[in-house]
Each structure stands twice: as structure tokens, then as C-alpha cells.
Amino acid sequence: GITLKHDNFKLKSISSSVRTFAPAILYEDDDLCVIDKPAGFVVSRDEKSRVLDFDNTKFIVHRLDKDTSGVLIAAKTQNAQIELSKQFAEHMVKKYYTALIYGHLTPKTGRIEAGIGRSVVNRKKMSIFSHKLRMAATNYRVIDYIGPFTLLDLDIETGRTHQIRVHLSSIGFPIVGDPVYGNKKINREISKKYGLNRQFLHAREIQFILPSSGKMKSVSSKLPTDLKNMLEKLNQ
């Protein structure tokens, strides 16, 4: 298999020039590594954007949206990729997120259960209104109410495309800064006032079973600077 070290990650610009990019590695063994994905990168070769590129993309186990930061697993062998993919398919992997939404969400804990599929209006968007819905469930817990915002801790039982973003938007509480499912006017005001230019969504922790030992492993990522700065400004 491949040895996935820092210099195996490359940043591809739109002009296709390549330079080495070294994301923080949160955990690594012979089978896999967990990186701290920055916002603004896609885990793909085919998007005309900045690309977080592995030596061999067949070893990518799951994805995070371009402007979502946080924990991301990559397998280093095909056997590990098969085992980890099976864990994701069987919903054995636990994923926890931090998000900031506009408005005060009540009650303080809850569950959003609504199928998600391609929007019939815009094929680039996902929606709870679609001809082909796949079951999706998101659990949330209010961490704090800060001014007009709510800081949430979330975990997802399924991993549908844009799941948290779609679910929160569907109940009238879109994620702050979300360019697709959010409020564009509020996003512009937030960008101007707080300097946030992406959705406030961070994959803070992932729990999975190590293929080598069969033991449960938990890996966490700290809130990145741009999100932390916004919270500090809100609390001033």
C-alpha cells in the first residue's frame, strides 16, 4: 500500500500547478490516517478548485464539503479502505459537528428525520423534496445562545450529501455563512461584520473501529481560527 505522509498531499490550483500542502495529521498508523481538513479544499480530482489530493484517490473513505473543516479519514491500504467503507455503510462510524445557526432553536435537544435527495429545481442542490429520497437523521444539542445565534453540537446517523446543511435549512435555521442553503443577505452582513466567508460548520470528532486492532478510536479537531474568531467577536 501507499505510505501517506505529509508530502503525499498536494494542493492543485485552477491553473493545474501543483505544490506540496501539509495538513495537520491528527492520527496515523499503518492502515490509515486522520487529517485536519481546512475549509476551502475539496477531496477530489475533478472539481475546478483547490484540491486536497491523495496519492491514490481510491483510498479516500468519505468526504467533507469544500467549505466544511475538520476530521477526515484516508485509508493507506485497499484492505483498510474496504473495512472502513463497510463501517460507514453500516452506520458504525460516529461523526460529531459544531455549527452556528441564525435564530434561537428550541427545544434545546432534538432530532431531525427527513429524507434527502437531489432537488427537482436545482440538480446541484439537495432537498427534502425530491423524487428519490434517502432516509437521513440528524441529532442536535444547543451549546449556547449567543446574541441572535445558536451554537449547536450535532451528530449524524447517516451521511447524506449536505445532510446537516439541508436539515437545518429545512426547519428554518440555516447555517451561518452557508452560500447554498443559507440567507444571502444575512451572510453578506456576517461577512462584513465578522469576516466569516464560509459556512460555520466543523467536523469536530469522529469515532470508528481501527482495522488493525478492532478497538474503538476517537479523533478530535479543534475549532479553526476563523470560526473561533467569530465566536470571540460575538461574545465581546
The whole-angstrom Rg is 18 Å
Structural category is alpha+beta
Please tally the helical runs, counting DSSP H or I stretches of 4 or more residues: 4
Number of domains: 1
Spans with pLDDT under 50 lasting ≥5 residues? 1-20, 45-51
Terminal Cα separation, in Å? 50 Å
Overall mean pLDDT stands at 83
- What is the CATH class designation? Alpha Beta
CATH evolutionary superfamily: Pseudouridine synthase
| DSSP strand content | 25-35%
SSE diagram, text form:
Layout: E1 10-12, E2 18-20, E3 24-28, E4 32-37, E5 51-53, E6 69-75, H1 78-89, E7 94-102, E8 109-113, E9 117-118, E10 126-127, E11 137-146, E12 149-156, H2 163-170, H3 184-194, E13 201-209, E14 216-220, H4 225-234
Parallel strand pairs: 6-13
Antiparallel strand pairs: 1-2, 1-5, 3-4, 4-6, 7-12, 7-13, 8-11, 9-10, 11-12, 13-14
Short structural summary:
With 236 residues, the chain is α+β, with helices and mostly antiparallel strands. It contains four helices and 14 strands.
Structural description of this entry:
With 236 residues, the chain is α+β, with helices and mostly antiparallel strands. It has a single domain (6-234), classed as Pseudouridine synthase, CATH 3.30.2350. The chain has helices spanning 78-89, 163-170, 184-194, 225-234, and strands at residues 10-12, 18-20, 24-28, 32-37, 51-53, 69-75, 94-102, 109-113, 117-118, 126-127, 137-146, 149-156, 201-209, 216-220. The strands form three sheets. Strands 3, 4, 6, 7, 8, 11, 12, 13 and 14 form a nine-stranded mixed sheet that branches. A three-stranded antiparallel sheet has the order 2-1-5, with no helix packed on it. The protein has a two-stranded antiparallel ribbon with strand order 9-10. The longest helix has 12 residues, at 78-89. The radius of gyration is 18 Å and the shape is globular.
